[in-house]
Design a protein that fits this description.
Length: 240
């Protein structure tokens, strides 16, 4: 079983009996490169980075991680950019895979995202895993001037553009939201034929792990002091 770790770039996660929340943290507390290095040394498979462009100070959109729908983020919440941080982590690690959990595809032009994440795959030597979603916070779509009701269709077109950008010598696309002819997207990612794309969607809110190993892992991490030997124990590895 491969076990990944969620990045601290949007703060420190915690749960009450029902819901998930994020405590905003300073960049000095986040330490994403150092935490990635510790996770790699402990034998973790991957680190996963969340994505938002901005955070409305108030929102009524139901948070997909919570059974109650309660908002997980604070009104003024520190967030580091996923792609930029992944580039820094790539330079400070050698085996840890780097994933997005999830990239909200409609928020940006897909050619820009295709370029950024191809760069991350190249800089990391082929360690990118691109998790893609359509988004859930209507207020953020409104701020960005994007049609919330069309987010699923927009995400589908973005994914197709990512695939073409990473594999085709000349890239064309003609859709409802994006339309262009004969562009070059080079160099291609390190992974062939392309990095994996994992589609994230709304599932059961407030899920609890049912596998005994995962329950034991989460219990151990909650008590961990962050030292490499503690993280190794959480991952079920010895200290060698």
């Amino acid at each position: 079983m491969d076990i990944g770790i969620y990045a601290t770039t949007h703060g420190i996660g915690y749960r009450d009996e029902n819901d998930f929340f994020l405590k905003s943290a300073s960049p000095q507390e986040m330490r994403p490169v150092r935490i990635a290095q510790l996770a790699e040394a402990a034998g973790f498979h991957s680190m996963w980075f969340p994505d938002h462009v901005c955070m409305p100070t108030g929102s009524s959109s139901a948070h997909v991680a919570n059974a109650s729908g309660k908002r997980a983020y604070e009104a003024h919440h520190n967030m580091l950019d996923a792609a930029v941080t992944m580039g820094a982590v790539a330079s400070g690690t050698s085996t840890l895979k780097l994933g997005t959990s999830v990239l909200i595809a409609p928020y940006r032009n897909p050619l820009s995202d295709a370029r950024q994440f191809a760069t991350i795959d190249l800089l990391s030597g082929g360690r990118l895993m691109l998790g893609v979603g359509a988004g859930w916070m209507k207020e953020e779509f409104d701020v960005l001037g994007l049609p919330y009701a069309e987010r699923g269709a927009m995400a589908n077109e973005c994914i197709e553009i990512f695939k073409r950008s990473w594999t085709a010598k000349v890239v064309d696309f003609h859709g409802r939201f994006y339309n262009f002819d004969r562009v070059s997207m080079d160099p291609k990612p390190a992974q062939k034929p392309r990095p994996p794309i994992i589609f994230g969607r709304r599932g059961y809110r407030g899920c609890t792990p049912r596998h005994p190993l995962l329950r034991r892992l989460l219990s151990h991490i909650s008590r961990s002091d962050g030292r490499p030997e503690s993280l190794r124990a959480a991952a079920g590895r010895n200290s060698a």
